[in-house]
């Protein structure tokens, strides 16, 4: 039976090879054997993050820090999961906690800096446009492209700081606000509260545009869609720098299920927004709506493409969830499209040849391919379980046996292979159950009879077996039954026992206690 350390190492190997689902499976098996090992939750958190399951990654990271609050890496994992979920402020706090525990760790410092940058850089284009000196640089297309790259990926900051304009931008916007003097001056007396500056007065056209927008919103709520569109069109004519009028108009077409028109208006909003350097969140919203249109039309590839474009602008939680759900749909469609029973049979035959030749890794590869081609064939799981058993990967073999049995509850070989795995894992009580089930299905099965005999003679420590059995919920339930306790007290009376054993239900419960070593027959 594999130890938790062996399973962890197998998970680490799978993770390094990019086999993330396998890594998750190995770490999960290891956790079952060692539930208090914080490192296992940390590693599984990393694997979940690799496959985009950020909620699960966060749960594991939180469990990790709960088990070991002094381990810095656990907080780093938590920060990474929160960052993927777009919860940047919480991510920053997690990274800061990691830095408190390991102040010299450069990776934690870089992670905290990056997440701060992501929060700060979100409004970068608007802040540059509002600055009297920096706005002139926006005439340089190369500068604009670098600014956009920095906004999308703050990790590029160190590289892009080689550009003098980018360097000036960063220092002007992010350091000038908080100057650091060489010597601290004496505290200045508190200033009198100054009245807040008034909001800039809107032009008449802008005011009129907002009125048209409100009229459009009111018509939209009443489902008077054509009227809403005319008001949004009028608003955009009055104030062509406000692309929210276009995104509102696209929402009307979406509600009307006119997806092609909705996409057209959203694309106009994106194009205009790029030209005007509008708020990235509005552009993200337009991309997300295009993705939603394609998803409703069943074009999942394009839907995924535009959701990803939206997330490159702004990681809105609802779009993250849509993108993740779409990933699952696409994977399932890919899995379904791959199914081909004829090719599965061919792969199975290749697996049989390799198995007979003693090349179990190759046989397992062929059986795995066969399972992908025909995941409803129980015999394929049984065959792969045999390979895992030969390779002494008993937890994996047991999992395949369980799948085999769930697909074919009357398949005797599934129970025999399950029992063999359990014997190898020293779980003789559960092995007996599997052998008995095989005998129920095939009373003349010699392998099952011999297996039961082996179970009866293989237990090196009967007392240890009894102690293990006491944790079995089924055994606990039997022993907590007052009627069964009374029957057990009558074990010395042969006549009473004969009468009790004539009841199939009582006989079955007694047999379970005998198998578990709780009751001995003399």
Name the features.
Serine Threonine Protein Phosphatase 5, Tetratricopeptide repeat; mainly alpha; STI1_HS-bd; Stress-induced-phosphoprotein 1; Hsp90 protein binding; TPR_rpt; 30 helices; TPR-like_helical_dom_sf; 522 residues
Description:
- Keywords: Cytoplasm, Repeat, TPR repeat.
- There is one protein chain.
- The protein is an all-alpha fold.
- Among the domains are: 4-121, Serine Threonine Protein Phosphatase 5, Tetratricopeptide repeat; 124-174, no CATH class; 243-325, Serine Threonine Protein Phosphatase 5, Tetratricopeptide repeat (Alpha Horseshoe); 461-522, 434 Repressor (Amino-terminal Domain), CATH 1.10.260.
- The chain is 74% helix and 0% strand.
- The protein has helices at 4-16, 20-33, 38-50, 54-67, 72-84, 88-101, 106-121, 124-130, 141-152, 157-160, 164-174, 204-221, 225-238, 244-255, 259-276, 280-296, 300-313, 317-338, 341-356, 360-373, 378-390, 394-407, 412-424, 428-441, 446-458, 462-469, 473-479, 482-489, 494-501, 504-515.
Concise summary:
The chain has 522 residues and is mainly α.
Mean pLDDT: 84
The helix fraction, in percent, is over 70%
Give unreliable regions as ranges: 175-188
Number of helices: 30
SSE succession: HHHHHHHHHHHHHHHHHHHHHHHHHHHHHH
The percentage of residues in β strands lies in: under 5%
**Classification by helices and strands:** mainly alpha
């Amino acid at each position: 039976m594999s130890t938790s350390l062996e399973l962890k190492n197998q998970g680490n190997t799978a993770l390094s090879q990019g086999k993330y689902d396998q890594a998750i499976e190995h770490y999960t098996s290891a956790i079952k054997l060692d539930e208090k090992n914080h490192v296992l939750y940390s590693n599984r958190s990393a694997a979940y993050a690799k496959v985009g399951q950020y909620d699960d990654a966060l749960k594991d990271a939180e469990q990790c820090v709960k088990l070991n609050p002094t381990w810095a890496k656990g907080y780093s994992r938590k920060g990474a999961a929160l960052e993927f979920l777009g919860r940047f402020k919480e991510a920053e706090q997690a990274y800061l906690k990691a830095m408190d525990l390991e102040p010299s760790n450069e990776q934690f410092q870089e992670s905290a800096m990056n997440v701060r940058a992501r929060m700060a850089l979100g409004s970068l284009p608007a802040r540059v446009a509002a600055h009297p000196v920096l706005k002139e640089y926006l005439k340089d297309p190369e500068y604009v492209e670098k600014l956009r790259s920095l906004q999308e990926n703050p990790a590029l900051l160190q590289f892009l700081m080689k550009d003098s304009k980018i360097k000036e931008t960063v220092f002007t916007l992010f350091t000038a606000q908080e100057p650091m003097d060489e010597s601290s001056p004496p505290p200045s007396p508190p200033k009198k509260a100054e009245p807040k500056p008034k909001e800039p007065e809107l032009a008449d056209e802008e005011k009129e545009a907002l009125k048209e927008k409100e009229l459009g919103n009111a018509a939209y709520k009443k489902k008077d869609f054509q009227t809403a569109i005319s008001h949004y069109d009028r608003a955009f004519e009055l104030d062509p720098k406000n692309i929210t009028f276009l995104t509102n108009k696209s929402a009307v077409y979406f509600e009307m299920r006119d997806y092609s028109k909705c996409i057209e208006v959203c694309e106009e909003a994106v194009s205009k927004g790029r030209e005007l350097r509008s708020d990235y969140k509005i552009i993200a919203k337009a991309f997300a709506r295009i993705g939603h249109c394609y998803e409703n039309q069943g074009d999942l590839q394009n839907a995924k493409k535009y959701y990803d474009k939206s997330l490159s602008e702004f990681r809105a939680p609802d779009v993250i969830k849509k993108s993740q759900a779409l990933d699952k749909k696409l994977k399932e469609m890919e899995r379904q499209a791959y199914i081909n029973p004829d090719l599965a049979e061919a792969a199975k035959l290749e697996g049989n040849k390799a198995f007979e030749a003693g090349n179990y890794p190759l046989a397992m590869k062929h059986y795995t391919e066969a399972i992908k081609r025909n995941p409803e064939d129980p015999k394929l799981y049984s065959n792969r379980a045999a390979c895992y058993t030969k390779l002494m990967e008993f937890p994996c073999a047991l999992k395949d046996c369980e799948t085999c049995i769930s697909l074919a509850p009357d398949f005797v070989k599934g129970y025999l292979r399950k029992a063999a795995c359990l014997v190898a894992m020293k779980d003789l009580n559960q092995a007996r159950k599997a052998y008995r089930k095989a005998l129920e299905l095939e009373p003349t099965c010699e392998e099952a009879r011999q297996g039961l005999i082996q179970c009866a003679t293989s237990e090196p420590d009967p007392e240890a077996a009894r102690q293990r059995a006491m944790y079995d919920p089924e055994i606990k339930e039997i022993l907590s039954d007052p009627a069964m306790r009374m029957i057990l007290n009558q074990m010395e009376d042969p006549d009473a026992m004969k009468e009790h054993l004539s009841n199939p239900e009582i006989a079955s419960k007694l047999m379970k206690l005998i198998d578990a070593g709780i009751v001995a027959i003399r």
